[in-house]
Write the structure tokens for this entry.
Amino acid sequence: MRSYHYLAAVGLLLLAAGFMLLVQPVALAQDAPEEPPFLTEYYEAWVTSPHADSTAEAFTHWDEETEVPVECAECHSTPGYRDFMGVDGTEFGVVDKPAPLGTVVSCDACHNSAASNLTSVSFPSGAVVENDSDGARCMVCHQGRASTDTVDAKLAELGLTEDVDTVNAELGFINIHYYAAASTLYGSEVRGGYQYGGNRYEVQNEHVPGYETCTDCHNPHTLEIKVEDCAGCHEDVESAEDLRFIRMQGSEVDFDGDGDAGEGIAEEIETLQEMLMEAIQMYASEVAGTAIVYDTAAYPYFFIDTNANGETDEGEAAFPNKYNAFTANLLKATYNYQVTQKDPGGYVHNPTYHIHLLFDSIEMLNQSLVDPIDLSSAHRNSSGHFDTTAEAFRNWDEDGEVGANCVKCHTAEGLPMFLHNNATIAVEPSNSLACSTCHNDLTEFTLYTVNEVTFPSGAKVSFGEEDQNNLCLNCHQGRESTTSVNRAISGAGVGDDEVSDKLTFRNIHYFAAGASLFGSETQGAYQYDGKEYNGRFMHGEDAPQACTDCHYAHELVLEIEECADCHEDVETVEDIRMIRVLEDVEVVDYDGDGNSEEPIKDEIFALEDVLLVLIQSYATETVGTAIAYESHTHPYWFNDLNGNGVADPDEANRDNRYVTWTPNLLRAAFNYQYVQKDPGGYAHNADYLLQVLYDSLESIGGEDAVATFTRPTVVAAGS
């Protein structure tokens, strides 16, 4: 007897042939009938695919039984899938009855009106993903059968939410199931892995336009990867195996801490898996008191290591020997290990999500280990522009929209939109920046051309015509300036030491390195009337002068070797912070502490510290309302209700923001924040920062406030 899937395919061929007989009777009467070539092509593609493999465990597992059970029929039979879709007239999203044996996933599972019109998919966590692509029908099955919520529900049921290191014999392993690619792809949005409370996890992986869904990357009939499409960007890719060795420049972080940040991202994940397994086995022995082993092909995967040799020996990977000493912590970690094992393509689907799950699981188990796994050289997150967990990209997740004023620098598409239109509109949050943010061609990787950049003050500056570093200046310029502060003060119409409810704090924003570098040319810091300031800082003859001369363009980390060319003692980033140029330069003790050889960074910090003290004294004595500063909480300046000089947790909230500003207080607070938010200012333009700090101190504290300090001499532009 012919199998179900073969008959279904033949039936489609006969239907098509019959249609051709009706529309082409003359031609077919003269010529021998031919199979419709388009259907033949699809059938031949499908018949050799895993979906058509009638000998696979996915379809033969129930052969010794009489039917495929309801809970498995949806994805392990065509009748079950059609039942779930409601094609048989039953309720959509529910399998009503077991499926017959002997079927696979054939043409009529996916090719029907219900599957074709599918626009949303529900996941085991309860999350619903809106997706109207052809890949939606794939996601129905390739989503796994468990989630963070599943694990948490079981722990709550057994009262193990707080007591995480106590063995409970009723707690068994929870299995994500096989090939949960969609859960990996959508990451934290669907919570397929176990996500530890308080940590941020990668959201949906955004590849590049045109390659974002299942069928964009996989042939929907053979299921094979479209390797030739991958090769369009990844030039060394000739086979599916080559995909394992891809490493994009935006993720050049040593995640596993083995000293090789250039190995394939799949290799980073594999090493983290090995590290997690080591932690799991150590924890099982030390904390749970029962050794554990893993077998990827034997249910329920985790077993008692009867001889405690760390390996799965003959006879151990059997159901009666299943592991039975789980704690809450051990279950979470083993669940995540299995999640990363059972999506073998996870390094493409969403590598960062798997890295997050593995790293956090190791870190959590480490808390209970005598000799923890060494994570000191490992990294959880990508750096800078590609840190998908950073507040710079996650701030708008709850709103679901990034406002037009923030889009340029906080979304992947913002900068190209701005360069094209000189304006932006609100868009959905993105993971981080992307290759397409700066590159206008993802084959040749050419950059957008920018000749000059307008800063918040209205000044236009440039590193040079078509210089790639001009792209950096579009975002690393801050959002305020001397001009905007003066405009606010003018609008208030009050004297320097008079409070006005029209004044609010003006925030320079983060990492305004470009404004520091160009100094008085852009007036990023508040520049006092009648004072002169340094312009663009030129490092030295034949020395690095622009952003990418000192920072790697993708990782943003410093090119230490560039610094070491001149500064012989520099071997680490920390060494850079200790630099003080003493040769051929007049040595000045700017902070008056008697040490003119300390790092220039320390000179700046000293003036910063004094400025904060004077700001607080001025607020109390002149304004009559104590003030406190909190660097990580907007809007940064708050009422110091208990007068202890610190923004306590109950004080650092928007409802308690500082509102009794005078022009003098606003100028000084603006400059204090300016220096705080350019942590590399000591390298970008140290003298400019010292000048604005000195003038702020003098303005708010008088001549006595700077009696022991020295203001850097103003030098001509380019000197």
Summary: The first strand starts at residue 120 and ends at 122.
